[in-house]
Amino acid sequence: MEGKTLTLTGGLSLGQAGTAFPLGQDSVLLGHFARPKPRGRALDLGAGSGALSLILLGRFPQLHVTALELCGEAAALCTRNRARNGLEGRMDVIQGDLRDRAVLPPHGSMDYAVCNPPYFAPGSGASHSALPAARQELSCTAADAANAAAYCLKQGGKCAMVYRPERLPALLRAFGDARLTPKRLRFVHQRADKPPSAVLLEGMKGAREGLSVLPPLLVQNPDGSFTDEYKTIYQLK
């Protein structure tokens, strides 16, 4: 049974269910950090219910997205969300393991890739009670996702991920091993006086070194109210 329906960027609708990890702040912020070509082809690795795919499609009305999801029930929900929004011509859904190149889109066929990979080593960190694979590296690591992205991307194509700040070295190592040169980095802080709660990283396939560290994305003002940027991302004003 599907739970409540959320309205996303561009008026697209996301249905959720217990079989897919619920939409969280990290995915929303990654969807707005990503900069695919407006008329390009993007790949959503570990798509779940399709939230990231829908955010990208809402932001870029001429973009085509391929959503790849391991869990059959989550992939079915993603397919229903595609139909719910009439996106059959702009969104493909593949059920399969991103570590299996036989199920990936063709080599070099994508302009952009996004992924919100599991953050924690098995048995560590918080986990969603019914969906530990969405939070722990049981079936996918950042390195697995980076390798899948690099395989599918064209030369000069880009990949964006969101990760835990304390594990940034592992993410940078995964990008480097996959020949995805880090090009843009941004930390997310709940408040300016708090340490970062997430990091957003974009890399380019086969690029030269040259990393831009962007100003931090602040969620709250000192008085606890949401910042203007955060409200714009969440369509709160």
How many H/I helical runs?
Answer: 6
Rounded mean pLDDT is 90
End-to-end CA span: 32 Å
Q: What percentage of the residues does DSSP assign to strands (E)?
A: 25-35%
Walk me through the topology:
Elements: E1 2-7, E2 13-17, H1 25-33, E3 41-45, H2 51-59, E4 64-69, H3 72-84, E5 91-95, E6 110-115, H4 142-152, E7 153-163, H5 168-177, E8 180-189, E9 196-205, E10 212-213, E11 217-218, H6 228-233
Parallel strand pairs: 3-4, 3-6, 4-5, 6-7, 8-10, 8-11
Antiparallel strand pairs: 1-2, 7-9, 8-9
Helix pairs in contact: 1-2, 4-5
Provide an overview of this structure.
The protein is α/β, with parallel strands linked by helices. It is built from 6 helices and 11 strands. The chain has helices at 25-33, 51-59, 72-84, 142-152, 168-177, 228-233; strands spanning 2-7, 13-17, 41-45, 64-69, 91-95, 110-115, 153-163, 180-189, 196-205, 212-213, 217-218. The strands form 2 sheets. Strands 3, 4, 5, 6, 7, 8, 9, 10 and 11 form a 9-stranded mixed sheet that branches. A two-stranded antiparallel sheet has the order 1-2. α1 packs parallel to α2 (51-59) and α4 runs parallel beside α5. The radius of gyration is 17 Å and the shape is globular. 41% of the residues are buried. Mean pLDDT is 90; it is low at 127-137.
